[in-house]
Design brief:
179 residues, 2 strands, elongated, mainly alpha
Length: 179
């Protein structure tokens, strides 16, 4: 199976685009606060990136320049690492990290929007968590795309590993024949 770099990079790129879109919508919302379109875009993208940008703003200061430089650095690192043809391992790692990030953001924003204390409880160790997860169409679509991207990475990684093991087996047979 010939792996497609663009398909393997699509989900991490989608997550980076969601983060960048939310920052751009926040910036444009500051410039055009009366625009219903800007409010709609910001409210749609905000739940997928709430906690990430709150933590960045808390520890690094609330600056759009810092946010843009973080997004640019992450995009450049992902793109250059994905352009290397050595192994599918980075794609595997990038897609799984992006899926964990998306799942965490969905779970965290679902918990913060829970209006009832009935849905929350504390485990015996004292860690509070909620069983409520907001599976809207948008959240479900993001999670489905992430799981699909990870499944494709599994197929690419395992087929590449199988091809390497077959090549090694052929070399060992040839070496054994020559000896």
């Amino acid at each position: 199976m010939k792996r497609k770099s663009v398909m393997l990079f699509a989900f991490p790129a989608l997550i980076l685009l969601i983060l960048a879109g939310e920052r751009m919508a926040a910036f444009l919302l500051g410039a055009y606060p009366a625009s219903p379109t800007m409010w709609w875009i910001w409210l749609e993208l905000r739940p997928l990136s709430t906690m990430f940008w709150q933590q960045i703003d808390l520890y690094l200061g609330a600056s759009m320049v810092v946010d843009a430089s973080i997004l640019a650095a992450a995009s450049i690192v992902c793109w250059t690492a994905c352009r290397t043809r050595k192994s599918a391992a980075f794609y595997f790692l990038a897609n799984h990290v992006a899926l964990l990030f998306a799942g965490l953001m969905i779970a965290v924003t679902s918990h913060s929007e829970t209006a009832s204390a009935i849905a929350s409880f504390t485990v015996p160790g004292g860690l509070p968590f909620s069983l409520m997860v907001d599976f809207t169409l948008k959240n479900s679509l993001v999670l489905f795309l992430g799981v699909t991207a990870c499944a494709y990475c599994h197929v690419a990684f395992l087929s590449e590993t199988r091809q390497r093991s077959e090549a090694l087996a052929m070399r060992l047979v040839a070496l054994q024949r020559d000896l």
